[in-house]
Amino acid sequence: MGIDVIIPVYRPDKKFDKLFAALLAQTVKPDRMILMNTEAEGFTCRDIERRLNRLMGKLKVYGKKQIAVQVVPVKKEEFDHGGTRRKAVKLSGADYFVMMTQDAVPADDYLIERLLLAVKEEGCALSYARQAAPLNSTVVEQYTRMFNYPNSSYVKTKEDLPRLGIKTYFCSDVCAAYKRSAYDEVGGFVERTIFNEDSIIASRLIEAGYSIAYVAEAKVYHSHNYSLKEQFKRNFDLGVSHMQFGEIFRGVPAEGEGLRLVKDTFSYLVGQKRYLDVLDLLFQSGAKFLGYQLGKRYHFMPHNLLLSCTSNASYFDKGEICAVEPGNSEPDYEGSDEKQHDGGLNG
After folding, report:
1. How far is the C-alpha of 195 from the C-alpha of 56, rounded, in Å?
2. DSSP 17
3. Residues 244-277, buried b or exposed e (16+ Cβ, 10 A)?
4. Which helix (H) or strand (E) holds 126?
5. How far apart are the first and last CA of the chain?
């Protein structure tokens, strides 16, 4: 069978150390961890290997099962949300793999076990975990996580598109388990995308007749307290990805879902008499919406202005940007994609 965990890393901090320790303590331990390391000064692959060896030396949870760790160098200018993950999966020979980000910390020792249950015994092609905001997160961020990641698990299929719309395609590589055979059948992650490689492949799995499971019992702590500038740039990239993969998402617009989040959050904050947080919500939502709408129009923007709006300038310095089908070198200039499926208003 085999199960690998794949994590892109860049300047990993203490959250990554906690993640690494938690993975070693899982009831179902991975056979191998593949770390795609975007190298920086003090964080070369050799530095990461030494750091992990020190951590394993301190941890008593390592147990009898040996877990191989492969650290793969990635040049910063060559990192891509889709292409780098695609390369990592090619290095894995496992029947199942779990994608994670370096700042997602498992809440308990059963994370991998619960995610695997959905893709092994329940027959889903993909399962993703619940994301909970730590207590030091803002109130708006905490509510956003609860909105996107509720307490109850569910399974989504193509039949849910009329009811759920773009939410049918929602999942997150912050923590998600994939069945390798289904992944290969739909062509894997796209070679090139600024964002949302997870939702793109989820849409293709849904269209191929597979189901996707949200597993609320599999939980990680993960959130971001973004500044207004960071929210703008993040949602600018979201708008860009919508434009590039419009053949997937054109028929399932995201703005309505984002407006519902804002309304629900507003009502919650007013009910709690958190009036200053209402102002934070309005400013955050405005930054998201403006960034998203400009991102959808990125192809009309002067290059220098474009680079000042994105959080990933190197992506736009690699030539003409367009959607590319997995395994196909010919670009498709129809396009769009979605991360939180919110029209630039979600978190």
Report:
1. 33
2. H
3. bbbebbeebbbbebbbebbeebbebbeeeebeeb
4. strand 126-132
5. 36
Distance of CA 102 to the CA centre of its chain: 11
Assess contact for 213 and 126: CB atoms under 8 A.
yes
Strand duo 154-156 + 126-132: pairing = unpaired
Tell me how far apart the alpha carbons of residues 77 and 79 are, in angstroms, rounded to a whole number. Answer: 6
Q: Coil, strand, or helix at residue 347?
A: coil
What is the model's pLDDT at position 54? 87
pTM score: 0.87
Comparing C-alpha atoms, which of 228, 229, 264 is closest to residue 342? 264
Decide if 296 contacts 241 (C-beta within 8 A): no
The dihedrals phi and psi of 112, each to the nearest 5 degrees, come to -65, -40
Which candidate, 176, 337, 137, places its Cα nearest to that of 243?
337
Determine which helix (DSSP H) or strand (DSSP E) holds 72, and give its type and residue range.
strand 68-74
Q: Which residue in the block uniquely carries the two structure tokens 């996107």?
A: 148
Backbone angles phi and psi of 126, in degrees to 5: -150, 140
- Note the pLDDT of residue 330: 31
> Tens digits of per-residue pLDDT, 97-148?
999 999 999 999 999 999 999 998 778 999 999 999 988 888 989 998 999 9
Neighbours of 19 (CB within 10 A): 25
The residue whose two tokens read 């893709």 is: 119
Separation of CA 116 from chain center: 18
Q: Exposed, middle or buried, 107 (CB in 10 Å: 0-12/13-18/19+)? A: middle
Flag residues of the chain having pLDDT under 70: 1, 60-66, 252-256, 318-347
What does the pLDDT read at residue 160? 93
Enter the DSSP assignment of 168.
Answer: G
Using CA atoms, how far apart are residues 322 and 333, in angstroms rounded to an integer? 5
The answer for residues whose C-beta is within 8 angstroms of residue 140's C-beta and 6 or more apart is: 265, 269, 277, 280, 281, 284, 347
Q: Is the dihedral of CA 173, 177, 182, 188 positive or negative?
A: positive
